[in-house]
Amino acid sequence: MSDNVPPLRRGIDIMPSPLAESPGLILRDPFRYTQAVLLIPSGWIPALALLNGSSTELELQETLTRASGGQFVRREDVQQFVQILRNHGFLESEEFHRLRDARQEEFRHAPDREPTHAGSAYSADADELTRQVAADEPRQEAADAHREQVGADDRGELEDAVADQIARHRAGDQLVDEPARGDEQDREKQRDRHGLSGPRRR
Predict the structure, then answer these.
(1) CA distance 173 to 168
(2) What's the pLDDT tens digit per position in 40-54?
(3) Where are the domains of the chain?
């Protein structure tokens, strides 16, 4: 069995956090195999470049320690960082394959196919949507308006999703777990140094 960390999935969305008070990168799945929206704190961004399928946890640990100016990053923190990405389906791992297969099976057997973008890219109300389609507007103008609407809605949905993640993060959940054992104050100091400070999962 390989000791290498599974690679980051291709095709996922990676973008800067829209919240100034929570800097970092946002990961989300445009295919919706997972509904999770993960915030990767700034201190952990260097680890993403090593999620290529050929790097080990030790190499992630060394890279993060160097990126932090020599402040030691615990192996347990790296393991939990990787496990969170696994559990939420962002790595090419068995966890993602099970999640993908379950979603596809659910889709195949669903009695109804729910419109994914109803209420954002277009109206969720059938009558209103009919009026929109029947409206006599130039094609290009309609296309431009559509793109602007989708962009605005996507940004709003993303900000809401991230804000919800941060709120739950502060309430007790967290996106990058901290070790379950060890001195509490020492862990907090280490997490502050690496940009991982935040509430803990209970």
Answers:
(1) 6
(2) 999 999 999 999 999
(3) 1-109+174-202, 117-171
